[in-house]
């Protein structure tokens, strides 16, 4: 762990929104990951489009995009950002019945988009859960993490493994 100072606290130890007015505008990109583990039968229903609430992955994709755009409304110390890219992708896991979710978010601005990418995969995962809970209440949202971030003063980051 680095010895970087936490920036969301003021001199009195109370939460603050960080002043980013002196930061450089740069291109920034972040990719986050989450997965929803489920019963094989649930995955089969998703594939076949046979769930009563509709096309699970299409709705989850829209939820992820909407969540990324609303991150500043949901996470108290996040800044509103002019997002220039939001891409949500899904794939089936190879090790168990699960849907893997990837969100890549980009901007050219003074602060990063890690929280927007993480919020996007969270909302997409919760939407999958919501749309499938009638047939599988035992689903598990797991392994949510930042995979990569590029740009900004703190530099680039890439997770070695999920």
Topology:
Blueprint: E1 26-37, H1 40-48, H2 56-69, H3 71-74, E2 83-92, E3 98-109, H4 114-132, E4 140-150, E5 157-158
Antiparallel strand pairs: 1-3, 1-4, 2-3, 4-5
Helix pairs in contact: 2-4
Distance between the termini: 18 Å
Apparent shape: elongated
> How many strands, which pairing sense, and closed or not: the largest β-sheet?
5 strands, antiparallel
SSE pattern, N- to C-terminal? EHHHEEHEE
Query: How many whole angstroms does the radius of gyration measure?
Result: 17 Å
Low-confidence stretches: none
Oligomer: single chain
How is this structure best described in words?
The structure is a single chain. The chain is α+β, with helices and mostly antiparallel strands. The protein is 28% helix and 29% strand. A five-stranded antiparallel sheet has the order 2-3-1-4-5, with helices on one face. The mean pLDDT is 93.
Brief descriptors of the model:
single chain, five-stranded antiparallel beta sheet, alpha+beta, 162 residues, 4 helices, 29% strand
Produce a short descriptive summary:
The chain is an alpha+beta fold and 162 residues long. Helices cover 28% and strands 29% of the residues.
